Each structure stands twice: as C-alpha cells, then as structure tokens.
Amino acid sequence: MPGLGPDIDEVYSELGTTITIIGRTPVVSEKVIYEINAQGTKPFIREHHVDCTFPYDTSLVVGDIVYMPTTSRYYMIMNLTPELFENEIVEYAGVMYLCNLPVTAHIVRPIEIRDTASYDMVSGWQVIKDSPIYGLMSDRIFGSEIEQESSVGQDQVWRIDLYIPKSYDIKPLDRLVVSSTEYYKIESVEAYNYPGSVVCLLVEDTRSETTIIGDEVYDDDY
Asked: 80 Cβ partners below 8 Å, 6+ apart?
C-alpha cells in the first residue's frame, strides 16, 4: 500500500514550480513549492531567504545550486529537513538562499611554482574555481568590529559574509575576484554551521593584482 508521500507528490506535479539543478548531467529538473519569507522587519531575510518544501523523493542535497526559470534567479539549498508521518518521509522542508554573485567571479589561491626557463621559484596564483561561481554575499548581519584609532569617535568596521557551496573547497588566504574589479581575501572559513555550505569572512584584498594565463595566474609581486 503506497504511503502518503506519493499522494503529496501529485500536489507538487500540479502546483509546484520547476527548478533545474546546476551541474547535473544529464539535466535534472524538480518541483518546489515556495513562499517569500514574511519577516518584513528584516529586509535582508525577506529578500534573500526563500522558505520551501520538496517532494519526498527529491534528489536534491544541501549545497546544490538550482535555477528557477520563473524568477530567472539562482538559489543555494541551505538545508533539507524531512517531514515524517507514521515514520515515513512524506516531504522535505528547506530554505534556499538567493545567489547574488556575478557570473564573472572566480577564486584563486597563492602558490609557488618553478619557472620552466630559469628554474627559479616564482610566487603566483592558481585558479581554484573559475566562473560561474554561485553564492550569497552580504554585509555581516551579526557582529562588527570597532575601529579604535578613528580620528573622530569610534567607527564600526563592517566585514562581508560569503555563503558558498562547500564543494568549492575555498580556504583562508584565497582570493575572490568579482567582475575583474573587486578583490576580496578570504580571512576565515566557518565550515560547521551548515552541512553543505561554508560561511567565509571577506576583507578587502590589498595584495597585488594578477594576470590569468590558462589555469594558472602569475604575479611576481605577490
């Protein structure tokens, strides 16, 4: 006797919104029922957090990036919580974060390589993840630092949070390049708050600029 899950699945087939999972081959599409977060007093949450439910047999995993044609936007699956009825999973509840990184962003890592002509060790950069990169950048919602040496009073120094899939394997001291004009250094990586994603603390990267050559980036002044 079939459980309740397949019956609820029919509701998704009729009323659900189609999403496409990025990076799956062949292409995988699923149905989601979602609503905009109602916390009107918190504009960030209302704009970037989407409450949703998925069928009991979803193939999604936390950290997946999905595209929703009806909104023309990309989202990251932050969590999936099974909803149970008589000890059987009937659907999943979850939260998606809106991805606002430009598609031209990429991640590089400082390395040392040996020059093939002079055999000298040269400081350089290696591309860890090329575009497109999907994630959510935002001003840090909770907590800030106080600039003690401010000439007038004490100013708050705000940092930027980056929510990004754990599969990108981003590490401290990596560089995030956005639209070839903005450079951010990964100051820290919090890897235990969410099962499929990490939260990176970004600061302005004042290290020298780079020139990308193929899969590697060279810079004699690193």
From this structure: 54, 58, 60, 61, 62, 92, 93, 94
Q: What span, in angstroms and rounded, lies between the C-alpha atoms of 169 and 118?
A: 32
pTM: 0.81
Domain boundaries 4-98, CATH class:
mainly beta
* Amino acid identity, position 114: R
The pLDDT tens digits of the residues spanning 93-107 come to: 999 999 998 778 889
Instruction: Round to whole Å and give the CA distance between 57 and 16.
Output: 14
CA-CA-CA-CA torsion sign (47, 49, 52, 58): positive
Q: Please name the fold of domain 106-218.
A: Thrombin, subunit H (2.40.10)
- Cα distances from 159 to residues 99, 139, 145, 162, 186, in angstroms, run 18, 6, 8, 10, 11
